Amino acid sequence: MAGRLADKVAIVTGAGRGIGEATARRMAAEGAALVIAERDATTGAAVARALTAAGSRALFVETDVADPASVEAMAARAVSTFGRVDVLVANAGINVFHEPLDTSDAEWRRCFSVDLDGVWHSARAVLPGMRARRAGSIVAIASTHSFSIIPGCFPYPVAKHGLLGLVRALGIQYAAEGIRVNAIAPGYIETQIALDYWAGFPDPEAERRRAADLHPPRRLGRPDEVAMTAVFLASDEAPFINAACITIDGGRSVLYHD
After folding, report:
1. Region 211-223: what's the mean pLDDT?
2. What percent of the chain is modeled with pLDDT above 70?
3. What is the CATH architecture assignment of 9-186+223-248?
4. What is the pLDDT of residue 3?
5. Contact by Cβ (8 Å): 10, 233
6. Phi, psi values for residue 248, rounded to 5°
7. Residue range 127-173, pLDDT digits in tens
8. Better-predicted residue by pLDDT, 191 or 49
9. Which residues of the chain does CATH 3.40.50.720 include?
10. Looking at the annotation, which residues are catalytic?
């Protein structure tokens, strides 16, 4: 039986680990050819090798989404290898958390260069081909920081708020040309970044449990749960979902707090 993404070509940025890796694996399992666009050559190449060994078509391209030339070269490799790009999952991102007045110009630029500019660079690289074919799906991985503010997390939520504006603007601009642009806003997901963070506490398991208890299901999200939503938005099952943002946080963002 053909997969939900059979015959589609997908680029996933930041696919060397975490949500990006889970998304690449899930999309490959659904029949897509994958371009692993990852800055870390070790993890990116490993994911591509694993997908190829499992029988999928996969290409690793070392990519720095903060560099427009690097992104354009990656998109060109995708087209020269697979013929076109049907799906972009703009997942690459970094955490930059400070108190506002402690944020240096360099940290501000570092955050925006990846978390906002990087998504625009990626979308801009694939949009001409999608417009020419009058078809395509772009999925940006945003965050619950896109609509909620946690003190001490500046300027990350500023960039993520801007990301939703970018998604909505592109979605509306190109909707009549058969292109859909949507976002996913994950909450607390159990990725390696989270594991590394908990490891810095005297009792990592207690810190993990504390984080889980903040959520109505009393657990954290898993990367594959975000990946499944990305597959849905990329597939032909979501033809009328556009300029939207799907929140994946177990309900925490609507939970009443005193």
Report:
1. 94
2. 99
3. 3-Layer(aba) Sandwich (3.40)
4. 95
5. no
6. -125, 90
7. 999 999 999 999 999 999 999 999 999 999 999 999 999 999 999 99
8. 49
9. 9-186+223-248
10. 156
Specify whether the CB–CB gap between 152 and 97 falls below 8 A. Answer: yes
Q: Which amino acid does the sequence have at 174?
A: Y
How sure is the predictor about 258, in pLDDT bands with cuts at 50, 70 and 90?
low
Rounded alpha-carbon distances, angstroms, from residue 189 to 26, 200, 248, 250: 17, 17, 9, 10
Q: Quick one: angle between helices 68-82 and 117-133, nearest 10?
A: 30
Phi then psi for 71, rounded to 5 degrees? -70, -45
Contacting residues for 258 by C-beta, under 8 A, at least 6 apart = none
Q: And the tokens for 88?
A: 């972009």
What is the SS3 string spanning the chain? Answer: CCCCCCCCEEEEECCCCHHHHHHHHHHHHCCCEEEEEECCHHHHHHHHHHHHHCCCCEEEEECCCCCHHHHHHHHHHHHHHHCCCCEEEECCCCCCEECHHHCCHHHHHHHHHHHCHHHHHHHHHHHHHHHHHCCEEEEEECCHHHCCCCCCCEEHHHHHHHHHHHHHHHHHHHHHHCEEEEEEEECCECCHHHHHHHCCCCCHHHHHHHHHCCCCCCCCECHHHHHHHHHHHHCCCCCCCCCCEEEECCCHHHCCCC
